[in-house]
Every structure is written in C-alpha cells, then in structure tokens.
C-alpha cells in the first residue's frame, strides 16, 4: 500500500469500499458526490479529513468516505467534532447531520458549537422528515403535515434552520439544494474555506417519505420565479425575465417588479454577506413562499476568532509565559513539610 | 501582680488527639477557618483528617438553620483515619450553628460561642424560645461565651474598612482563639493570607489583626484554664503536603498524562461535588492539559471521546445525575473502544438528591447503567491521597485496554483532606502509548493477543483512514456488520477484554488474619472509618479482618478464595447493599450489608457495633 504520493487527489480517492445503502433516488447521493468532488480541490492531505455524524440517513455518510470517519450518537456530532478539533486543530473536521439530528435531539449542541465558532463544516441535510425511522414529522416539517405519527396533521411549529443558526451568532450561514450540483459544490467549497463554524443547510429530497418537499421552488418551470440566488455584491434580482427584486421598506423586505411604480435596478438591495450585524441575513432567512422567493447561497460570512484557535493560543501563551510544566514542582506545590 | 507572667502561659496539657468542629453561617468563612487549622496542624506534624459539611445553598438566609456550614477536623499524634465520630470542641458562630451541631457534642465537651450573635432575631430563626446561653440548657458543657463580633471590631479599630468587611474577619479571630488553645504556630496562616490576598494588602492586615487579636484576647482574658498540645505524629519519612481528594485526582491525571505523553482533553460540565476537578485541571495548561467547559454533561463526554479519538487522554468528571446523562455516550465509548476516564464523584440521590452530601450508591449505575452488554472497568478511591494513585491506575487501564474506565470517588473523599506522602516522579508507573502508524496490514479492530485491545489509530496518520461508530462492527475489519454470530463474538470479546484486566491487577490483600470468623469487605471512602473501627476492635481483642477493593470490575482474582475462608462477611457501604449484592451473586457467599444512607460517612463506632453484633450472633 502506498501511504502518500504527490499525485493530486481525485474523487476516487475519497470513495470508500462500502456499498452505499441509501434508497435509490435519494438526494444524499448527489451531496456525497459533491463532497467527493470538492475535497480534492482543497489542498488538504486526505488523512486530515474527519467526517463526524450523528444518527439518521444522512449520518451514514462517513461510511462512504474514504477518510477518517466517526458515526456517533444521535444529535451529538457537534460535541464529538468539537473535541476532535480541540485535540488536533490541524484536522479538517466535517459534521454531517439531518434536520432531526441537528435541530431536535441535538439542538443544544448545534447552537453552542455555532456561538463558539468552532472551526468545523456542518452540512445539514434538511428533508423535513424522519427517514430512517420511516416517516415521522421532524422539527422542520410544515405545520399540519400528516405523517405516521401525525395522522391528523402536525401541530408543531417548525424551526427555520438558518434563523436558528443566525440567532446563535453563526459566522457562516448558507443554503443550497441537492439537485443543483454546481451550486452545491460551490457552496461546500465556500464553507470549507471559511475559518469558523460553517453552517450549510442543504434542501434534500426524501423520495420515499417526503417526495417533492422542495419541488414548489425547484421545478424547472417555476424555479426562476420561486427562488433567488444570493450573490455577494450583486443586486437581489430574480424571475425568469430577471425583472423582480428585493427592496427594503418600512416593515422589512418586499418583492418589487423592476419598471413598476418607478422601481429601477438601482433601488434593489445589494447582497452583502459580510455585514457585521446579522439582522439583514436574518430577514433573508425568513423569506418564505408564497410571499417571497426562497433564497439560496451564502447569507452570512463574517470573521470572528475561532474557539479552537483561541483555546490553542491560551495554551501556547501560558507555555511561553510560564515554561513547560515540571511534574516534580507541581507535586510539591504549596505548604510542604519534611518528616 | 508579680505572678501575672508566671500564670500567663500555663504549661500545656498533652493530648493525643482532638476533634474540633467549626460551625457558622455559610457566609461566616467556616470552610476557610477549618482549612487553615488543618494546614497548620498538618504543617506542625500532626496526622489530620477533615470533613467539610456545607449546605447546597450558596447563601441561605443569614442565621437560618439550612444555612449552617460546618467543618470538622481530627488532628492527632498518631495514625488516624477519620475526622472523628464526635467533636471535643464545638465553635458555634450563631444560634443556628449551635442548634444544628450541639447534639453531636458529648457532655462536658468544650463549647465556644459568639455571644454577640445571640440576639432575639437569630434565636428565633434558630428555633429557640429562650436564650440557651442564659436558660441553663448548656449546663452540661464547658461553655465559653466570647463577644467575637465586638472583639473583632475592637482589634481592627486601626483599620480603615467598612464595618461589614471588618465583621467578616471574625472567623480569623475565632481561629486565633483555637490557635491559642492548642498552641499552634501562626506562620502557615500568615503566609496563606499573604498569598491569598496578594493584591489586597489591607485584607492581609485586617485578618492578621483578627488572628492575633484572638490570641491576645485569650492571653489577657484568661478564658481557658488549660491549653493543650498535640505532639507530632510519626510518619514514614518523606515530603508531605495536605491534600483533598479532588485535588489529588487532578494531580494524578496530570501525572498520568505526563507519564503517557498524551496531553489531556478534559471536558466537563459544572456539577457538585466534582467541579473542583475541572477547576484544578484548568490551571495546568503548561502540562498540555486543555479543559473545555461544555454546554451539558452529554457534550462533555462526547467531546472527551472526540479528544481520545484524536489521540489525547480524554477525561470527563461528574456526579450521579451527570453520569445518568452520559450513559449513551459511554456505550459508544465501549463500542468504539477508545481510552477515556470518567470520574463520578458520588453524592446523595436519586435525581438531584443531596448535592453536597456523600453517598456510594452509583456502583450499580457504573456497572450496568447502559443499554445492552456494555462492560466497563470500575475502580474506586479509598482516601483523599489514594485519589492520586487511583487516577493513575484509571489512565493506565484505559490506555492499555483501549476502554472507558469509570473512577468512583465521593463527596467525602473529594472534600476531605489528609497529609499525603508526595511521591517522587521516578517512582510513578510508566504508561506506554503506541499510536498505530504503519498502514501495512492495518485493521481498526485487529486485537492485541494479550489484552484484546484494538490499535489507537488517530486522524492525521497517513494510510490509516477508517471509520468507526456505534453500529456493530465486524471484528478485525471494523466494517458495519449485522450478522448474529459476529455480534455474539463481539459481545464476548468486549467482555473478555475487561475480564482480562484481572490478570493485570494486584491480588486483594487481607488486613488481619487471612482466615477466621469475621471479614469486612468494602470499597471506596469507607476505608477510613473501617481502619478506625479495626483499631478499636483489635484493642478490645476482637479478631476481624478487612479487604478493601480498589478494583470493582473486574474484582481481584483471589477474592473468591478469601471470602470462602471466613465464617461471616460484613460489607459496610453508604447504599442499600450494592457491593453486598455483587459478592452474593458472584461468589455465593452470605455477605451481610451494613447500610447507611444519611449523606454522612460512617462513624467508626457504627462499624465497631456492627462487627460486635456479628460476633454475638455467631
């Protein structure tokens, strides 16, 4: 076996020998493929990648990656990943999770990881359903949804994952869709490049238990009118004819048609993912159909020192200032007497 | 007049041991006072043993019964093992402290009270209808009334400080009185104050004035007819320091990580009485110790496992309720076979229970508190100083056998203190760590033929990329595998790997004759009271032996043989009989439990009585 060579890594280097056991037609396949395509472009040695997951369909992901992988317990992947990153900041650590794993049982760990800004990449596969347990409503299922555990319709008000992440002061927040391979790869690459917690919500179709969950925005015929791609520095324009855009008025965001009521392209908001305050990104995260198109892209990308680097800096600083610890001195610290 | 100097210092009377209890409001500084007296006694060469007993509330209303905080210490010119069954001297700073503690003071015991605090309000709060200082109810005690507050204010007249702060120094005035009574040097406390208040010189001065004021008051007012002296105890030669269990645990963990050269990732969530382990370790960054205060107990253990996966010594410390939360992650640690030390400083339960009181009732939880067959080695610390060695043993087993290890301590050993013989670094066991680096024929679940441990293959190592997780794995390859026969093999392998440890630990030692009528078997913090009881029993000619277990899973190989050689077996434990049940189940012996679940350690006399009763039954 060759340990390493200078030959550039390819997608194949990241495919494990395990049979993939997702349902045929599952959106997870395209996400796996996108990640395997992006990693070789990142200039990171293969042995430095660690994929950490919780429980659920998405959490089988590490088994299919030929990297270090840790399939942990339900909801706790961010905590394991934090420990791994603290123990070895040199690693590129990825958290693979789903809407139930990250937002229901693991909600606490997710928000604390984000507020600390641990340098991890989180890919949240949101299919708005519990798949592996065969079809119960999840914390992102819409109100009134009929599932096996809610035959009369769910009365749970759903979470908006991006709003949660922004509320937790996440420094990188993005959304993409399983069936947009180019956008998916681009977003994953952006997440990987960001220092700090990168939170990517991926709309992912579960063709068995929640088929078509996102088709109202992804169907080719309506796509351009029902979604808006956020691009840093570009005006927020959408529509088949590129004739609609977003304005900021009294109450917040509004959709306007260019050319109507005197609106010109110059009146439209320009997307700035680097705004220090999270409020604009939060407003964008609240945009929902039918009133608004659904935004995809990077909502927020700001810089804040990472938890792991601050922890390491404190270790290094103490070592510099006080010198390496001597066990003999430590054992003999304080009031010591001789017999 | 001329005789004044002659009687000023009556010759101290020699006594061989004294038990003092300081009691006051939780804001009165009783813990500091007790610790100062302890350090001074230890420094002066006495053997010491302490028992801090404080409420769960940080500051219950001043003067109230639930707010009473106590600190008992035993210091002696001979080997002692407990803080003493009952105090010889009780210092009560207010009526509530008197109300709560007087029942423990034997008749004719010495009682020192702060009479300034015996006003109507405090008396009512403590439930007194009449003033015990005046109604004759204290006639059976040698009561000394001291206007501590007034005297402290007078002693600090020269200091420009708010009244409230002046009054806070009265515990040092009381300490001065006790130093006078027992002829203690003030130097250790002086140097403590200078260290502790390094940035507040005015507080150093104020507390020193109070301390010296207490001594001067005793000299001037001659409140004691006699003073006492406790001679030095005989210790094996060496260097000593006073240590409590939680500090010793932290030191042991640092020492073990140095011996193993792994560094530490310690992830914990604050919980009484375990938080001090986190506090202590957070100071030791220059030893490669990183501490992470996690968002909850679950995150704490998960992060520690993550740290172990990435090659550090993973540690988490908690108490019973936190252990319950960590159960699922502990099961994962069993499945992925990573080295991890989980410390459970036990307290009274169930649920939140008695957060500041001691208990030993988490043994079953440690053994069986997980789904399915999830064996974990368990070891327990017997004394504060033993915590150091138990921590090293926990690390040794975790790394050698690639397994989580549960270390059981409890509130009594955690907060109790004793003189500790400082080991030399050269005498510490070496702990070998072999990270796998060779990709040739690497399989994540290939096992060492002796220990059955799998290789420690850490991320970042080229060529060893592999996946682990909670799903059942095929042995050797580590691939996910649901085959029934493979599962049974893995269940048995995990079990055998823990059982193998019995070949790697010392045989149980019998203290006393190795066969006979009565054997005490015990674990953890009951060690001290049992030693004291043995001294008493043997002095009376009662023949009884004792085995104290450090390893509870697996137990020493020779234990079964030992148990067969005794007619009667008694197991004192601070639960309803957990070790007793194990002994009965595993060795088919008629072990009987001596239970106590009052949040307090055994008194030696309780064990003495139980053993005597055993004798009368046979």
Describe this protein's structure.
The complex is a heterodimer of chains A (339) and B (618). Chain A has 339 residues and is an alpha/beta fold. Chain A has helices spanning 28-38, 77-87, 99-105, 107-116, 161-167, 181-193, 215-218, 223-226, 279-285, 307-322, 327-331; strands at 49-53, 68-71, 92-98, 121-126, 172-177, 198-203, 227-230, 237-238, 244-249, 252-257, 294-301, 336-338. Chain A has an eight-stranded mixed sheet with strand order 2-1-3-4-6-5-11-7, sandwiched between helices. Chain A has a three-stranded antiparallel sheet with strand order 8-9-10. In chain A, α1 packs across α6 (181-193) and α3 crosses α4 (107-116). The longest helix of chain A is centred in the C-terminal third of the chain and has 16 residues, at 307-322. Chain A is globular and about 90 Å long. Chain B has 618 residues and is an alpha/beta fold. Chain B has three domains: 4-230, Pyruvate-ferredoxin Oxidoreductase, domain 3, CATH 3.40.920.10; 241-427, Thiamin diphosphate (ThDP)-binding fold, Pyr/PP domains (Rossmann fold, 3-Layer(aba) Sandwich); 516-617, Rossmann fold. Chain B has 21 helices and 22 strands. In chain B, the strands form five sheets. Chain B has a seven-stranded mixed sheet with strand order 11-10-12-13-15-14-20, sandwiched between helices. A six-stranded mixed sheet of chain B has the order 3-4-2-5-6-7, sandwiched between helices. In chain B, α10 packs across α11 and α10 (245-260) runs parallel beside α15 (386-401). The model of chain B is unreliable at 1-7 (pLDDT under 50). Chains A and B meet through β2, α2, α4, α10 and α11 of A and α2, α8, β9, α10 and α12 of B. β12 of chain A pairs antiparallel with β9 of chain B.
